Amino acid sequence: MVLTSSQRERWAPWGLLLIIFLLWQAVCSAFSVSEYIFPSPVRIAQQLLEFHAEILKHAWRTFWVTMVGFGIAIVVGVLLGFLVGSSRLAYSAIYPLMTAFNALPKAAFIPILVVWFGIGVGPAVLTAFLISFFPIMVNIATGLATLEPELEDVLRVLGARRWDVLVKVGLPRSMPYFYGSLKVAITLAFVGTTVSEMTASNEGIGYLLISAGSSMQMGLAFGGLMVVGAMAMAMYELFSVIEKRTTAWAHRSSQNH
Q1: Listed residue (194, 182, 183) closest to 228, CA to CA
Q2: Which of 16, 69, 177, 251 could join 125 via S-S bond, C-beta 3.0 to 4.6 A?
Q3: Where residue 5 falls among pLDDT bands split at 50, 70, 90?
């Protein structure tokens, strides 16, 4: 059976993942690596099955907390991006400050957030928000700020106001940038939530990682990491599908050879 180009592209990540797991298992078996140091994929699968109920409980907590923080990041990122991209003055004033803020390690905010909101959901939601809103803001601002001057001049001649140009042309033009930022930001949001849960929570995958590490259940710890990666990958793929359905005009149609 000969696979088409699109089918090969679709199955390529899964094939590569299978090869990585097979090599991983082979190395662990050939060198008798201790599961307390580097567990094999088989051992990780065993512990995922053994503790599946506990993992699901913590994974659900991490997922919905991340989605709340990510939702706030979308709202704030779009609003700030629209403001920064639609005004040269706002761009000059806000963009450098946001860049400096983004350079700060978000993990350093967690102790402050714990003091303000206590241990639990609050620090995790805000950490997910703080770490993920910047890519959204930057991409929306870039899409608006790079609107072709010639196109804007033509629209102005035709009677369009600045607001009409931004809303009816600038925002649609920014949609590919927006979806690109969502795919980056959602992975960062899961990182923020997990890091916060490791230090300021008694639930979630981050808490599970600390508990598993302290009890030398390294297979469970690696399993927790894989669960976070799977959730992030699922959301990434969801945004990819939505992007292709809503911004097909911005992508070249694939051709089978």
Answers
A1: 194
A2: 69
A3: confident
